[in-house]
């Protein structure tokens, strides 16, 4: 579903994303990790068709990142690290608004809206302004709307920032459900325990992918007990090579 080959983004003399190469399979939960400034957001913007690469190649759901950016946008969902719904609209109004943007028919909107509200247990909150909801509910609603149109891929940019551990776990149950339906999930996170929930993860350091494998294999490779230890080992290695 995602295939990149030496994908690179430069801003003048600064190389934000340096020749990254990887593949992501259908229905896979793929974690994209790295410290702030490592190049994660730049890479995600290219994969979403929002930024044209400087060099290299990539296809998203079979579409070329240079020539078919509109087709890419029609086949993906996106949730930013900053809450992306309209807080001055109600829950139901947000669902209708974004469903309309995604091109759903009135009948599809009615059916999917009722199902989404039921699945999230928001029947009593449907007519409330989204701004009045707790952050955890906002994030779960935002994710559910991002996959409302049944995209082939959903991109999640640090989706659980600021929510409590219980809500984070509930959010990940939504991710598992989407993956079970065949949706490919591409997620960035700075919570190392969340990296363990992914099928595979890549770790970016200074614009390059320094490691890519399953969490178990990475821990074995770096003789680590946790993904925190793997991350710190890679960071120390990068400093020594400077």
UniProtKB/TrEMBL annotation:
The keyword Nucleotide-binding applies. One of its GO terms (molecular function) is ATP binding. Residues 2-231 form the ABC transporter domain. It holds the Pfam family ABC_tran. InterPro entries: AAA+_ATPase, ABC_transporter-like_ATP-bd, P-loop_NTPase. It comes from the Bacteria. Keywords: ATP-binding, Nucleotide-binding. PANTHER family: ABC TRANSPORTER G FAMILY MEMBER 20 ISOFORM X1, ATP-BINDING CASSETTE, SUB-FAMILY H, MEMBER 1. This is ABC transporter ATP-binding protein.
């Amino acid at each position: 579903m995602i295939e990149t080959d030496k994908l690179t983004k430069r801003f003048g003399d600064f190389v934000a994303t340096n020749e990254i190469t990887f593949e992501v399979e259908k229905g896979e939960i793929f974690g994209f990790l790295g410290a702030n400034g490592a190049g994660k957001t730049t890479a995600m913007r290219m994969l979403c068709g929002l930024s044209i690469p400087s060099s290299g190649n990539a296809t998203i759901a079979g579409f070329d990142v240079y020539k078919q950016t509109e087709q890419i946008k029609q086949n993906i969902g996106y949730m930013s690290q900053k809450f992306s719904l309209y807080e001055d609209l109600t829950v139901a109004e947000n669902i209708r608004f974004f469903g309309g943007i995604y091109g759903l028919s009135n009948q599809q909107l009615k059916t999917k809206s009722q199902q989404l509200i039921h699945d999230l247990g928001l029947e009593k909150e449907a007519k409330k302004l989204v701004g009045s909801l707790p952050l955890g509910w906002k994030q779960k609603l935002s994710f559910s709307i991002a996959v409302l149109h049944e995209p082939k891929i959903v991109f999640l940019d640090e989706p659980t920032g600021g929510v409590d551990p219980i809500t984070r776990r509930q959010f990940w149950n939504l991710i598992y459900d989407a993956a079970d339906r065949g949706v490919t999930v591409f997620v960035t996170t700075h919570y190392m325990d969340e990296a363990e929930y992914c099928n595979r993860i890549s770790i970016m350091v200074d614009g390059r992918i320094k490691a890519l494998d399953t969490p178990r294999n990475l821990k074995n490779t770096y003789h680590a007990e946790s993904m925190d230890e793997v991350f710190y080992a890679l960071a120390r290695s990068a400093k020594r090579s400077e």
